TrEMBL record:
Keywords: Membrane, Transmembrane, Transmembrane helix
Xref: PANTHER family: DMT FAMILY PROTEIN
Transmembrane stretches, start-end: 37-56, 77-97, 103-121
UniProt-recorded name of the protein: DMT family protein
Amino acid sequence: MYRGLSTIALLLCSNVFMTLAWYGHLKLQQAHISNHWPLIGVIVFSWCIAFFEYCCQVPANRIGFQGDGGPFSLIQLKVIQECVSLIVFAVIANILFQGQSLHWNHLAAFACLIAAVYFVFMK
């Protein structure tokens, strides 16, 4: 149980960094902080954040993978990661980008992902 919870906690942390790396520069642009940065500068900025994503993602996969004594198969790890990614994205998008709201079709897509988690864990 410890390995499973550790894996999910590390995936949450990883996805916070991932979301900030992928979309944080857009918020900086809205705030007129990075408007004049060249594209390579934005890429380097994002990669610096993504480094911390990998510092959490790689241990999460190692701890959680059945082949290394963890509770999850490779497919289960991937489905968990995708669900965590969308949840983290939805929260951060609603905090940073207040004009972006969730609609019924987004919630339906999330429900489908929850169903995917259910099915991937069925024996």
